Amino acid sequence: MKVLMNSWFGQHVARRLIKRKRRHLPSDHLADPRLVSYYPPAPGGGCTVLAPAQSGRAFNAFALDANSFHPWFLAASIAEGGDRAVTRKILKAYYSLVQPKSLHDWLDIPEDACPALAELPIYAWMMLPWSARNPQELVKGVEDAQLRENRRYGLNEGMLAGAKAFGPVSDGKLRVEVDRITTLVASIRRRGFRQEQTDVLRAMFLLSDGEWRWLAVNAMHRVPVAAGLGVDHLPVEVVAVVRRDEVDIWPQVTAGLYDRDTALGVFDRLFEGRAPKCAAPWLDWVDRLRAASIWEI
Question: Is 199 helix (H, G, I), strand (E, B) or coil?
Fold first, then answer.
């Protein structure tokens, strides 16, 4: 069995079986998101369709509605037809204006809180309080993924070139991100949003007092670009349900990486869609240019 699963054929069969096992949530499940709990998480099921503008969140709390401040959403919605020059101006501005100094800065938590977080690199921002992953595994996964992504676009560098979620970034990394956005814009305009067989769009539900939000946990480029182009519904696989009132059993709280109050603060900011304070210059820049209808820097 091990040989089979390590072969191309074995992986193909496994994907087919996973796809066959997926169960679609009932169309009315969003009326009461607690129903999600009665469907097994991925890979066994929990497929549904979600609207980006309806309580959607991309990295670090950026909402995906018409007033979104997400840089890739803006690049897709403003650079009509995939204008490369406009896309570059928007991304260059973002990476110049949003440069957190630490993981605490990016997560928007006090510097003296959760001292163990200071041992993680700044790009480990997906190590959220409810994550069950080992921090070292997550960091290694992020580093490997960025190197693969950069090489795909002709840049043979990893994290030293900068992280995709914030600045500073090298000229080469800026080019990579511009290439990715313009390529995605062209693809989605031509073929619509396509669910990748080997990279299924995954999301988690955040539940609090009977209300819900959804947070994309992969497809970090595809989701905001699709939303920026006006795609109103995306097929997703629900991989986790995070309940605010269960903070005391969240894995990274019980492991001691987060304290209870800080963990709740991270949850609330994501739930409410509040960008971190380090992004304030970017939000001001977007507000100013939206008012003037001039997208230049």
Answer: strand
